[in-house]
Amino acid sequence: MRTGTRNSGFTLMEVLLAVTILAMIFGIVFGTFFYTITNAEEQQERAVIYHKANFLLNDITQNTASAYVPFGGRLGSETSAETGETVETEETEQSIFMGTPSENEDTPVDSLELFTTNSRFSARMLAGEIAHVTYGPAEQDVEDLPYAVDENNPYALQCTVAPLLTETEDGGGVFQWTMNVHSLRFEYFDGTEWLPEWVYEDETALPAAVKVTLEIADSNGELFPFSTIARIPVNSVLEEPETAFEELEDEEQEEQEEDILEDQEEEEINPPADEGAEGDQGSSTLETQE
Protein backbone atom coordinates (compact mmCIF):
# COMPACT_ATOMS: atom_id res chain seq x y z
CA MET A 1 0.00 0.00 0.00
CA ARG A 2 1.34 3.33 -1.03
CA THR A 3 1.21 6.21 1.44
CA GLY A 4 1.63 9.88 0.38
CA THR A 5 4.12 12.18 2.10
CA ARG A 6 3.19 15.84 2.93
CA ASN A 7 5.88 18.60 2.93
CA SER A 8 5.69 20.84 6.06
CA GLY A 9 5.76 24.72 5.62
CA PHE A 10 3.65 27.88 5.21
CA THR A 11 1.65 28.81 2.26
CA LEU A 12 2.06 32.15 0.48
CA MET A 13 -1.18 33.47 1.96
CA GLU A 14 -0.05 32.64 5.49
CA VAL A 15 3.27 34.45 4.98
CA LEU A 16 1.58 37.53 3.57
CA LEU A 17 -0.91 37.56 6.44
CA ALA A 18 1.88 37.33 9.04
CA VAL A 19 3.92 40.09 7.41
CA THR A 20 0.85 42.34 7.30
CA ILE A 21 0.11 41.80 10.98
CA LEU A 22 3.75 42.49 11.95
CA ALA A 23 3.78 45.65 9.84
CA MET A 24 0.63 46.88 11.57
CA ILE A 25 2.09 46.17 15.01
CA PHE A 26 5.39 47.92 14.22
CA GLY A 27 3.50 50.86 12.70
CA ILE A 28 1.44 51.32 15.86
CA VAL A 29 4.47 50.99 18.13
CA PHE A 30 6.71 53.38 16.18
CA GLY A 31 3.84 55.83 15.57
CA THR A 32 3.15 56.01 19.30
CA PHE A 33 6.86 56.38 20.01
CA PHE A 34 7.37 59.24 17.55
CA TYR A 35 4.16 60.95 18.68
CA THR A 36 5.35 60.81 22.27
CA ILE A 37 8.72 62.31 21.33
CA THR A 38 7.11 65.07 19.24
CA ASN A 39 4.60 65.88 21.96
CA ALA A 40 7.37 66.00 24.56
CA GLU A 41 9.35 68.44 22.41
CA GLU A 42 6.28 70.65 21.94
CA GLN A 43 5.57 70.62 25.68
CA GLN A 44 9.20 71.45 26.41
CA GLU A 45 9.10 74.33 23.93
CA ARG A 46 5.88 75.65 25.47
CA ALA A 47 7.43 75.40 28.92
CA VAL A 48 10.35 77.51 27.70
CA ILE A 49 7.92 80.08 26.25
CA TYR A 50 5.94 80.27 29.49
CA HIS A 51 9.18 80.57 31.48
CA LYS A 52 10.37 83.47 29.30
CA ALA A 53 6.98 85.21 29.54
CA ASN A 54 6.85 84.69 33.31
CA PHE A 55 10.34 86.15 33.75
CA LEU A 56 9.68 89.15 31.51
CA LEU A 57 6.24 90.02 32.94
CA ASN A 58 7.43 89.60 36.53
CA ASP A 59 10.46 91.78 35.89
CA ILE A 60 8.39 94.56 34.30
CA THR A 61 5.61 94.28 36.91
CA GLN A 62 7.91 94.47 39.93
CA ASN A 63 9.95 97.33 38.52
CA THR A 64 6.84 99.28 37.50
CA ALA A 65 5.01 98.69 40.79
CA SER A 66 8.10 100.09 42.57
CA ALA A 67 8.28 103.15 40.30
CA TYR A 68 9.74 106.15 42.11
CA VAL A 69 9.96 109.89 41.50
CA PRO A 70 13.53 110.84 42.51
CA PHE A 71 14.87 114.29 43.37
CA GLY A 72 11.38 115.55 44.18
CA GLY A 73 10.44 115.34 40.52
CA ARG A 74 13.12 117.88 39.57
CA LEU A 75 15.45 115.70 37.51
CA GLY A 76 17.69 117.98 35.44
CA SER A 77 16.89 121.06 37.52
CA GLU A 78 17.91 122.73 40.78
CA THR A 79 16.37 125.20 43.19
CA SER A 80 17.98 128.64 43.48
CA ALA A 81 19.00 129.49 47.05
CA GLU A 82 18.39 133.22 46.48
CA THR A 83 15.01 133.25 44.76
CA GLY A 84 13.72 129.78 45.64
CA GLU A 85 12.75 129.20 42.01
CA THR A 86 13.44 125.99 40.10
CA VAL A 87 16.03 126.53 37.39
CA GLU A 88 16.64 124.06 34.54
CA THR A 89 20.21 122.74 34.42
CA GLU A 90 21.94 120.48 31.95
CA GLU A 91 19.71 118.21 29.91
CA THR A 92 19.76 114.56 30.97
CA GLU A 93 19.14 111.53 28.81
CA GLN A 94 17.19 109.86 31.62
CA SER A 95 13.50 110.53 32.18
CA ILE A 96 11.63 110.03 35.44
CA PHE A 97 8.93 108.01 33.64
CA MET A 98 8.41 107.88 29.90
CA GLY A 99 6.47 105.34 27.88
CA THR A 100 6.41 105.76 24.13
CA PRO A 101 4.94 103.58 21.37
CA SER A 102 7.16 102.13 18.69
CA GLU A 103 8.23 104.71 16.11
CA ASN A 104 8.33 102.04 13.41
CA GLU A 105 5.07 100.21 12.70
CA ASP A 106 7.06 97.22 11.46
CA THR A 107 8.66 96.84 14.91
CA PRO A 108 5.87 96.21 17.44
CA VAL A 109 8.05 96.75 20.52
CA ASP A 110 7.23 99.79 22.68
CA SER A 111 9.70 101.57 24.96
CA LEU A 112 9.46 102.29 28.68
CA GLU A 113 11.94 103.93 31.04
CA LEU A 114 11.49 104.68 34.72
CA PHE A 115 13.18 105.00 38.09
CA THR A 116 12.46 102.18 40.53
CA THR A 117 13.36 101.12 44.06
CA ASN A 118 13.18 97.43 43.25
CA SER A 119 16.27 95.70 44.69
CA ARG A 120 16.16 92.37 42.86
CA PHE A 121 18.47 93.40 40.01
CA SER A 122 21.76 92.05 41.24
CA ALA A 123 23.45 90.74 44.37
CA ARG A 124 25.99 93.55 44.03
CA MET A 125 23.35 96.26 44.46
CA LEU A 126 22.43 97.77 47.79
CA ALA A 127 19.09 97.09 49.46
CA GLY A 128 16.57 99.75 48.49
CA GLU A 129 18.77 100.87 45.61
CA ILE A 130 17.33 103.40 43.18
CA ALA A 131 17.94 102.44 39.55
CA HIS A 132 16.95 103.70 36.14
CA VAL A 133 15.46 100.88 34.04
CA THR A 134 14.85 100.99 30.29
CA TYR A 135 12.87 98.52 28.14
CA GLY A 136 12.91 98.85 24.37
CA PRO A 137 14.12 97.49 21.05
CA ALA A 138 17.81 96.61 20.93
CA GLU A 139 19.84 99.35 19.33
CA GLN A 140 22.14 96.96 17.51
CA ASP A 141 21.15 94.56 14.73
CA VAL A 142 19.72 91.18 15.66
CA GLU A 143 22.57 89.43 13.81
CA ASP A 144 25.13 91.09 16.10
CA LEU A 145 23.39 90.11 19.34
CA PRO A 146 25.02 87.34 21.41
CA TYR A 147 22.19 84.78 21.11
CA ALA A 148 20.44 82.67 18.47
CA VAL A 149 18.27 84.43 15.90
CA ASP A 150 14.60 83.39 16.00
CA GLU A 151 12.70 83.90 12.74
CA ASN A 152 9.33 83.61 14.50
CA ASN A 153 10.38 86.10 17.19
CA PRO A 154 12.45 88.53 15.13
CA TYR A 155 12.42 91.49 17.54
CA ALA A 156 15.06 91.86 20.22
CA LEU A 157 13.84 93.39 23.51
CA GLN A 158 16.65 94.86 25.57
CA CYS A 159 16.53 95.82 29.26
CA THR A 160 19.16 98.19 30.69
CA VAL A 161 19.55 98.73 34.44
CA ALA A 162 21.63 101.68 35.67
CA PRO A 163 21.88 101.92 39.50
CA LEU A 164 22.43 105.38 40.96
CA LEU A 165 24.50 104.41 44.02
CA THR A 166 26.28 101.14 43.32
CA GLU A 167 29.45 101.36 41.24
CA THR A 168 31.84 98.66 40.13
CA GLU A 169 35.62 98.88 39.98
CA ASP A 170 35.48 100.21 36.44
CA GLY A 171 33.09 102.97 37.56
CA GLY A 172 30.09 101.42 35.85
CA GLY A 173 27.45 99.13 37.30
CA VAL A 174 25.15 99.13 34.28
CA PHE A 175 24.06 95.69 33.12
CA GLN A 176 21.71 94.43 30.39
CA TRP A 177 19.76 91.42 29.26
CA THR A 178 18.14 90.73 25.89
CA MET A 179 15.25 88.49 24.79
CA ASN A 180 13.56 87.60 21.49
CA VAL A 181 9.85 88.51 21.36
CA HIS A 182 7.18 88.74 18.70
CA SER A 183 5.62 91.92 20.15
CA LEU A 184 5.50 93.98 23.35
CA ARG A 185 2.97 96.74 24.02
CA PHE A 186 2.47 99.13 26.96
CA GLU A 187 -0.67 101.07 27.94
CA TYR A 188 -0.99 103.60 30.76
CA PHE A 189 -4.07 104.23 32.93
CA ASP A 190 -4.73 107.83 34.01
CA GLY A 191 -7.73 106.97 36.18
CA THR A 192 -10.35 107.08 33.43
CA GLU A 193 -8.87 105.57 30.26
CA TRP A 194 -5.88 103.68 28.87
CA LEU A 195 -3.37 105.79 26.94
CA PRO A 196 -0.69 104.59 24.48
CA GLU A 197 1.91 107.10 25.75
CA TRP A 198 2.94 108.67 29.05
CA VAL A 199 5.58 111.31 29.85
CA TYR A 200 6.05 112.37 33.47
CA GLU A 201 7.32 115.81 32.54
CA ASP A 202 4.00 116.49 30.77
CA GLU A 203 1.63 114.76 33.21
CA THR A 204 3.56 115.72 36.42
CA ALA A 205 2.55 112.36 37.87
CA LEU A 206 3.02 108.65 37.33
CA PRO A 207 0.20 106.58 35.78
CA ALA A 208 -2.11 104.72 38.13
CA ALA A 209 -1.35 101.43 36.35
CA VAL A 210 0.53 99.99 33.38
CA LYS A 211 -0.83 97.22 31.15
CA VAL A 212 1.75 94.94 29.53
CA THR A 213 0.80 92.81 26.50
CA LEU A 214 3.38 90.28 25.28
CA GLU A 215 3.40 87.83 22.35
CA ILE A 216 5.90 85.00 21.86
CA ALA A 217 5.76 82.54 18.93
CA ASP A 218 6.85 78.91 18.90
CA SER A 219 8.88 77.18 16.18
CA ASN A 220 5.71 76.58 14.13
CA GLY A 221 4.77 80.27 14.19
CA GLU A 222 1.87 79.83 16.64
CA LEU A 223 1.48 82.91 18.84
CA PHE A 224 1.11 82.73 22.62
CA PRO A 225 -0.32 85.98 24.07
CA PHE A 226 0.31 87.08 27.66
CA SER A 227 -0.98 90.10 29.53
CA THR A 228 -0.75 91.62 33.01
CA ILE A 229 -1.45 94.91 34.81
CA ALA A 230 1.04 96.53 37.18
CA ARG A 231 -0.49 98.98 39.63
CA ILE A 232 1.57 101.90 40.93
CA PRO A 233 0.51 102.65 44.54
CA VAL A 234 2.43 105.95 44.81
CA ASN A 235 2.07 107.95 41.61
CA SER A 236 2.93 111.44 42.87
CA VAL A 237 5.86 113.21 44.49
CA LEU A 238 6.24 112.49 48.19
CA GLU A 239 6.45 115.65 50.30
CA GLU A 240 9.57 116.32 52.30
CA PRO A 241 9.15 115.74 56.07
CA GLU A 242 9.93 119.35 57.01
CA THR A 243 7.30 120.67 54.62
CA ALA A 244 4.74 118.23 55.93
CA PHE A 245 5.44 119.21 59.57
CA GLU A 246 5.20 122.89 58.71
CA GLU A 247 1.80 122.36 57.12
CA LEU A 248 0.58 120.48 60.21
CA GLU A 249 1.79 123.29 62.49
CA ASP A 250 0.03 125.88 60.31
CA GLU A 251 -3.19 123.90 60.44
CA GLU A 252 -3.00 123.58 64.23
CA GLN A 253 -2.33 127.31 64.61
CA GLU A 254 -5.30 128.16 62.39
CA GLU A 255 -7.54 125.87 64.44
CA GLN A 256 -6.40 127.54 67.68
CA GLU A 257 -7.09 131.02 66.26
CA GLU A 258 -10.55 129.94 65.14
CA ASP A 259 -11.31 128.58 68.62
CA ILE A 260 -10.21 131.87 70.22
CA LEU A 261 -12.42 133.90 67.86
CA GLU A 262 -15.41 131.65 68.57
CA ASP A 263 -14.91 132.07 72.34
CA GLN A 264 -14.75 135.85 71.99
CA GLU A 265 -17.93 135.92 69.95
CA GLU A 266 -19.74 133.82 72.53
CA GLU A 267 -18.58 136.13 75.33
CA GLU A 268 -19.89 139.17 73.44
CA ILE A 269 -23.26 137.57 72.83
CA ASN A 270 -23.65 135.96 76.26
CA PRO A 271 -21.77 137.94 78.98
CA PRO A 272 -20.69 135.99 82.07
CA ALA A 273 -23.25 135.53 84.83
CA ASP A 274 -20.92 137.06 87.47
CA GLU A 275 -21.07 140.47 85.79
CA GLY A 276 -24.87 140.37 85.88
CA ALA A 277 -24.85 139.39 89.53
CA GLU A 278 -22.46 142.23 90.44
CA GLY A 279 -24.77 144.68 88.65
CA ASP A 280 -27.77 143.49 90.71
CA GLN A 281 -25.83 143.79 93.95
CA GLY A 282 -24.78 147.34 93.07
CA SER A 283 -28.37 148.45 92.39
CA SER A 284 -29.64 146.93 95.63
CA THR A 285 -26.93 148.72 97.62
CA LEU A 286 -27.96 152.05 96.15
CA GLU A 287 -31.60 151.46 97.08
CA THR A 288 -30.64 150.65 100.67
CA GLN A 289 -28.61 153.84 101.00
CA GLU A 290 -31.50 155.89 99.70
From TrEMBL:
Taken from the record, one Pfam family name reads T2SSJ
Entries under InterPro entries matching the protein: N_methyl_site (IPR012902), Pilin-like (IPR045584), T2SS_protein-GspJ (IPR010055)
Q: Could you list the residue ranges forming a coiled coil in this record?
A: none
UniProt-annotated stretches for the region Disordered: 241-290
Segments spanning the bilayer are 12-35
Polar residues bias: start-end ranges: 281-290
GO CC term (a single one): type II protein secretion system complex
Top-level lineage group: Bacteria
Its keywords, alphabetically, are:
Membrane, Transmembrane, Transmembrane helix
Q: Where is the composition biased (Acidic residues)?
A: 241-269
Provide a GO biological process annotation.
Answer: protein secretion by the type II secretion system
UniProt family annotation: Belongs to the GSP J family.
This protein is called Type II secretion system protein J
Q: Which organism is the protein's source?
A: Abyssobacteria bacterium (strain SURF_5)
